[in-house]
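In practice, a research group might receive sequence data for several interacting partners and want a quick structural hypothesis before committing to experiments. The following worked case mirrors that situation: the sequences arrive first, and a predicted assembly follows.
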Amino acid sequence: MENIIEFRNVSKTYGTGTHALNNASIAIEKGEFVFIVGSSGAGKSTFLKMIMHEETPSRGTVIVNGTDVTKIKRRKVPYLRRNMGIVFQDFRLIEKMNVYDNVAFAMRAIGSSPSAVKKRVPYILELVGLSGKAKNRPSELSGGEQQRVSLARALVNNPSIIIADEPTGNIDPEMSFEIIELLSQINAQGTTILVVTHEHDLVRHFNKRVVVIEQGRVVSDTKETAQEFEFNYSTDPDAEPIVYDNAGAEEVTEEAEKAEEAAAAEQVAADEQPAESKEAE
Amino acid sequence: MRVSSFGYLIKEGLKNVWNNRIMSIASVCVLISCLVLTGSAVLFSMNVSQVVEKVSQRNETTVYLKDSVSSAEAPFLRVELMKIKNIASADFYSRDEAFKEYKSKLGDEVFAYLEGQDVLPDAYKITMKDVKKYDDTVKQIMKLEQVQKVSDHREFARKLASINRLVQILSIAVVIALGVISLFIISNTIRATMYSRRFEISIMKSVGATNSFVRIPFIVEGMVIGLIAAVLSTAGLAFLYDGILHIVSNVTHVDGIPLADIIWYVAGAFGVSGLLIGMLSGFISIRKYLKKEGNEILGW
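A structural hypothesis for the assembly, expressed as tokens:
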């Protein structure tokens, strides 16, 4: 299968001297569903920003949809972004617009015709289960519903990639599962999905590819290791990050194996719990 | 760009003006003061130029005779004057006629105590065949020994012209200063709109809106502010000009340029200036935002 996103030895150092990404390499195929996990400040956001061309690497190459985005001309960036749909943790809906207009806004912003908007928006709202709420303002909706509007807006221009940055961070656990389920259904139709999350319950529940980024490096990738994802990092930004060996995936895997024993008991317990009780947690 | 998109962007620009109406009104007021002051300066200058032109081309010069020339012999100077090639006509204008004329213009009181005294000289009013040869003709007239002096109305024209130049220099300074102030105020108005619409801008950019698509509503906003100011300024200046012209012509008997002759030029100039200043303000304001990405637009 063809790669839709490829990072080749990408490093990013900000002006402050922070190394957000450090020689990171990863390839995501068309139609994949990938969870990106890692502690706060690990480099996940920078990773997403580079795909969206909000940041450019200090070194290395980023290829999206066959285009080297490190060399793309500034005026071509909007067209690159039309292949992506972005879902934000804080929804970023426009309060003065109703649900319909929030979704239609994304189409109008790229110059779609009014007839195309009229045809497409109701279809997308139905897809995310919000047909009955088209006239409502965002503040009249629950967190889960707001995130579905945000998802509808991301989907409406029929992108080949959906990038969801902590899409479940502001909604209750039950809704979180629904959102990821919805993303899975969209993925089943061929759209590549990238979800950045801290919620390991979700990651465990949906058996998808998991990429762990720590200290700017891809330290674990279930596709590479052919192993199930092990939750072995802290979501506490003040916690000491787990230091992986920089030599490469092999040694990282060894590190992961060492951690496996410690996490085994928790993993077994978690697997035995029914889904509902996990969600209730 | 589609026509429908263009319509959508214009509508968004108009919405910006309405949603941010207090700042829009402030911008319109500043731009009106700029345009009216500029327009006033230009109209003043145009009128002065016209007066200068008229005075310069006035083909009537007064030749004053020396006091020693008696009233009896003065009328005979006409023959001498008519010998000068460039003189087309020479009419005797006696001190009595001059006295009567001044008296009727300025009132009896001023001239009451001068009655009976020879305060005004005898004179000739001459016209020239070619006004361009004014200097040479005056030189020849001055050679006649009965002539005291020749009134040089061009001196008055020169004084007016120098005042006009001063007004023009001041006008340019005022226009530049007010233009910069207008740009600053309108840019800030648009910036305030942009701040309130930063979410929309960030979403537009994230879904792949081109820079021109993001920019157009803000440029439309600036242009609408400029156009409103231009229409109001034209109306205001027309009202002011007509009033001032009326007063000036009553007091000085000088006819200025009629309003009807200039009003469409004023409207056109104001329209173009308002639109350009508004457009430029839109460009200046959005430039910063277009360079930003993602959360930077939101100030996070």
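Before designing any experiment, note the following. The two ends of chain B are 32 Å apart (CA to CA). DSSP finds eleven helices and four strands in chain B.
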